[in-house]
Every structure is written in structure tokens, then in C-alpha cells.
Amino acid sequence: MTVASTRVIQVKTDIPGPKAQAILARREAAVVRGLGRSTPVVAARANGALVEDVDGNILIDFAGGIGALAAGHTPAPVVDAIIAQTERLLHLCAIVGTTESYVELCEVLNDITPGNFKKKTILSNVGAEAVENAIRCARAYTGRGAIICFETAYHGRTLLTMTLTSKYDLFKKGFGPFASDVYRFPFPYMYRRPAQMTEDEYTEWCIESFDRMLTTQVDPSAVAAVILEPVIGEGGFLPVPPRYFAHIAKRCKENGIVLIADEVQTGFGRTGKLFASEHYTEYGVEPDIFITAKSIAAGLPMSAVTGRAEIMDAPHPGGIGGTYGGNPLTCVAALETIKFIQDNHLPERADHIGEIVRERMARWQDEIELVGDHRGLGSMLAVELVLDRKTKAPAKELTYEAIQIAARNGLILIRAGMYSNCIRVLVPLVIPDEQLVEGLDVLEHALRTVNERR
């Protein structure tokens, strides 16, 4: 895919154009209604941070496959590895036999995840499956059943992970009953804290609430694991306050509770470090288990659970596994993706991207009344849109409208937030500065346009 001018976005037709409209009509007729879509883009090919649609329009991608494309679209070493693997072996099943790429990937993950202890890994297909595997290991190891999760959390769409997920209206409505022995604790949502509290006071209140709920909701002796995203993703890009994370880690250690870090969206360089948990090491946070997916394999379906060897080995042989987990294609893709991320210093690149985006978002918050807050970590950033800055009433419909305006002007975006009123930025970390700024210009235009219509 080539672009002739310095401006990379090329809108040659309406978006969606005629070919895209025809395919979208087919989607409407053939695909279930429950599978939502953020934009009307119908992609034909992509590379780096650019997507070409079926009508020849070229767009900049700020959604990045919902965080699955830290290494960008179609990175050459990954594509070459996949092509080479297709000629050798497509599938065997790790339950049936062994492939070296499965073993090598587990070795790499054991090595690069934080924690100075012996680790083991199991591979699977998607983040939700990995979450379930992590909880199985924690329950088998502790002999306990209860799981603590948090308000604003998102962990997946299976029965257990949907139970762990906090956002009811979009993800859970009509799908109950849910799994038992799951307890949801408060999470420090700084922007929506009580007006009379400082950030420190609010963090302290959440800490006290956490301890109180260990009496009123569940006893620590019954808890197998606490599962937490170091930066809440779907819930609105909320970094865990260090003091809160440190307190949780302390309580887990005191009570023999397994601490699970869900790094599905934060992992592989997105936050300025290879894993977001590394930002909290100096505060004494050392998760026992890490869950990874999304950017692990440049968009191919791959997830993993990596943790303390004694915890990971707790399930009986045959107790965890699956037909496609650790498929040879996804394993070689993951190995090349991790190498690509490390060789190209993409965590450092994420910090640079984050500085550019955060500066622009801060200006939007000053100048555009609709923008109530901006936040995140590294390049994992979002703006929260509100109808009124005093009441902080969520601007859900205007958020959707802004994303549609941006799409029509060549920028791919997706929402987030407990109230679906955040626009998240998950750009491929290979994006050149010029493309990043061009995309931010389009997003700013969309925000200013909907702000004027309020």
C-alpha cells in the first residue's frame, strides 16, 4: 500500500463507499445483531498504522484492533514467519503432541514477565480463556473458591469472565444467571470521586473499603485470587493508584491469596514498559500470575497465562488445555512479535507517543467544554466526554457521533468507559510522528464539531 502525498489520509469516496456499503449490507443480513461495530470501515489491507478500505480510501488506525496491534498491521518479520510455518505444520494440538515453538514461546514468556521466581506458562486463544485458566490454577493451588474483582473491570465474555466484568448494560444484560463466589470491590475512579475528597483521601477511602469488604463480603481465608488490570481498559483507561495496588498486594501476601495481573490490553509495550505491572514494582507489587493476549501475536488469536511454577502446576494433568491453544502459526507469530517489539524499542516509543498525545489531550481539556478528563499511562490514553463539567453527565451519544465523524474523515477509533463516553487511543506503536499528529488533528476536528452541536 503506497501513499503519494505527505498527508497519508486519502478519502476518495464517502466512508463507507459503494463497495463498503454493499459488504455492510451483507453483514447486516448474515451476521448477528449482537456483534456491534465501532465504524463503517470495511478493510481490504493494512500496514503499520494505515488501513486501506475496499473503496481505496486510506485511513489512520487509532483503535489498533482494540490494542492487539502494538507492533502494527502486518509487520514483515511476523508475516514471513507465518508464511514459512504454513508450509511446515498448521496444527497438531499440544494435548496430542509437542511443537518446539510452543515450548520456546513459554520459555520466552517465563523470562520476560516480571518476578524473580521460577515460572511456567500455558497458551490459549483469547484473553477470556486465559483468565479462566489463571483462575483455575489459583483455585487448584489454594483449595479456595472465591475471586475478588473490581468495579470498572473488564475480563471477557465467557460465563465466568462476564461475571468478573463490571459493565452490566453492554456486556451482561439478559445473559444471567452468572457465576457464583465472585466479589466486586471498589476501584479508585479519580475523575468521578466525591467532590469533597482529594485524590489521596479517595485512595485511602478505597483502601479502607477494600479491608472492610474482607469482613462484610468475604473472608480472606475463602479467597483464591484477586484479579486486577494495572490500567483498567474497557472501563475507561484508569491506572491503578500505586498506593491502592500496593495495599492489595500486601493483603494478598498476608493471606495466601494469588494476585493475578490481567495484562491483556496493557501488555507488550503499550504503557511504556513491556508490562504495566513493572510501573508498580517499586511499590512492592509482584503479581503471582500474568495474563497476556492481544498484542502478543500482532493480531493473531493467542493468549497466555504465566505465573509461579507451583501455582501453574497445581491443576491435575488434563485439567487445563484446549484444541487450538498454542497453534504453531500463532506461536511463531508471537515469537516474532515479541522480538520485533524488543528490537524496535517499542515500549520507549510508547512513552514518546504518549507525550505527544497527552499534550494534545490536555489542550482539548482546556479548550473544548465537552472534554471532561484525559488520562492513561504511556500511549494507552483516553478522553472522557461529558455534557456538563459540574455534573459530569456522560456524553455517550456525542462520543459515538465524534467517532463517526472521525471515520468519515479517515480516522479509525473506538469507545471505552463505564458509560461508553470515552474515546481511547491505542495506536500501533510503529506509527510515525507525522501520522500520529494527522490522526490527532482529525480527532480534534471531530471533538470540536460535536462540541458545537451540544
Report on the architecture of this protein.
- The chain is an alpha/beta fold and 454 residues long.
- The protein folds into two domains: 18-67 and 345-452, Alpha-Beta Complex (Aspartate Aminotransferase, domain 1); 78-343, Type I PLP-dependent aspartate aminotransferase-like (Major domain) (Aspartate Aminotransferase, domain 2), CATH 3.40.640.10.
- The protein is 38% helix and 18% strand.
- The chain has helices at 18-30, 64-67, 76-86, 100-112, 127-142, 159-164, 168-171, 199-216, 242-255, 309-312, 328-343, 346-367, 396-408, 433-452, and strands at residues 43-47, 50-53, 58-61, 119-124, 146-150, 182-185, 223-228, 231-232, 238-239, 258-262, 289-292, 303-308, 371-377, 380-388, 393-394, 411-412, 414-416, 422-425.
- It has a seven-stranded mixed β-sheet with strand order 4-12-11-10-7-5-6, sandwiched between helices. Strands 13, 14, 15, 17 and 18 form a five-stranded antiparallel β-sheet that branches. Strands 1-2-3-16 form a four-stranded mixed β-sheet.
Could you give a quick summary of the protein structure above?
The chain has helices at 18-30, 64-67, 76-86, 100-112, 127-142, 159-164, 168-171, 199-216, 242-255, 309-312, 328-343, 346-367, 396-408, 433-452; strands spanning 43-47, 50-53, 58-61, 119-124, 146-150, 182-185, 223-228, 231-232, 238-239, 258-262, 289-292, 303-308, 371-377, 380-388, 393-394, 411-412, 414-416, 422-425. The protein is an alpha/beta fold.
